[in-house]
Amino acid sequence: MTPNTSPYLSPNKMLNWSKKNLFSSWVNTIMTVIALIFLYEVGTFFLNWAIFKADFINNFRGETITDRTFCSKNIEVGQHGACWAIIFVRFHQFMYGFYPVEEAWRVNLVYAFLPFALIGVLFDKLPLRRVFLYFTFAFPFIAYFMLYGGPGLSVVATNKWGGLLVTLFLGVTGIAMAFPLSILLALGRRSNMPIVKSICVVFIEFIRGVPLITLLFTANVMLPLFLPEGVKPDNLLRALVAVTLFQSAYMAEAIRGGLQAIPKGQIEAAQSLGLNYWQTTRKIILPQALKIAIPPIVNTCIGLFKDTSLVLIIGLFDLLGIGRAALSDITWTKLYYEVYVFVSLIFFIFCFGMSRYSLYLEKKLKTDNS
Amino acid sequence: MEQNFIRKLIFDEKTRALLIQTLVIGIFAVLIYLVTKQTAYNLEKRGIGTGFEFLNIAAGYDISISLIPYDSNDTHLRAYFVGLLNTLMIAVCGCFLATIMGFLVGIIRLSSNWLFRNIAYVYVEFTRNVPVLLQIILYYTILLHLPKVKQSIIIFDSFYLSNRGLFSPAPIFKDGFSVVIGSLIVMIIFTFFLKKFLKKKQELTGKQYPIFLINSALIIFTPIFFYYLMGMPLEFDHPVMKGFNFKGGMVIRPEFLGMLFGLSIYTAAFISETVRSGIISVSKGQREAAQAIGLKANFIMRLIIIPQALRVIIPPLTSQYLNLTKNSSLGIAIGYADLVHGFGGISLNQTGKAIEIMLIVMSTYLTISLTISFFMNLYNKAVQFKGNI
Question: Which residue among A142, A258, A322, B229 sits deepest, i.e. has the most Cβ atoms within 10 Å of its Cβ?
Answer without folding.
Answer: A322
